[in-house]
Amino acid sequence: MSSPHTIGLVGFGRICRALYEYVEADPDFELDYALVRSEKEGLPASKQVTDPAALADRPVDLVVEGATPEALDELHEAMLDSGDLMVLSGSAFADAGVQTRVERAASERDRAVYLPHAALLGVDGLVDARSELEAVSITATKAPDHLDFSYTDAVSPEEVTGRTVLYEGPVRGLCKMFPRNFNSHAGVALASLGLDETTSKLVADPAAESADHVIRASGEGFDLEITRKSAIEGVTGDYTLVSIWGSMRRVLGADEGLRFV
After folding, report:
1. Which ranges of 84-142 would DSSP assign to H, the alpha helix?
2. Contact predicate 75/10, CB 8 Å
3. Over the stretch 213-230, which tens digit does the pLDDT of each residue have?
4. Architecture of 123-235 per CATH?
């Protein structure tokens, strides 16, 4: 019997708690640690690490960063000392310096860095067609209660009394305004035309009952449109949880049978 795939988590919010449950339920996976700032309920004390420097002595097959853009920038070297890295806070790359630092640290350690498609679909198709793409846009619709306004003073939830366009422009700008909400937009942009040439539109709608995204991409001879609707709790849609788990399994080659590429 082969050894289980070992996982390290950074953060223990909704996404990482869900991933922990997936890992615990799968005998082919094992959680080695979760890096947390303070003790967390529902997680064995032996799995909790509070000192980032300790990660160098806890090698794993994959580290999953599920914290914040700031934590990614601050802790990426410690994470990469432990293993290959899956970045969930993709909006951190709205700061080009963060992307450069993460990629350099990974290269120095001969580690891989993965950016999952997370909340959105079709990233593989965008990568395949990247050289032929002419336009890529993403329209997101969410209730204001599911947006984290704490990073921006440009708009406030009190201003949203009906269906309101809060942002329309390059993905980079949206990621800076709402870094906890639109990591997947960063992934789509990085997979296609980049953070400045890919456009995002954010619609806040108090009547919205789901988190909705529409991706449109076009090039010579083709037009693509993908719509995704997902139930949501906090800032994270339900689809995101199963999507990230699927990405982890593919990265580690954990599934037998047909490989979908």
Report:
1. 96-109, 123-128
2. yes
3. 999 999 999 999 999 998
4. 2-Layer Sandwich (3.30)
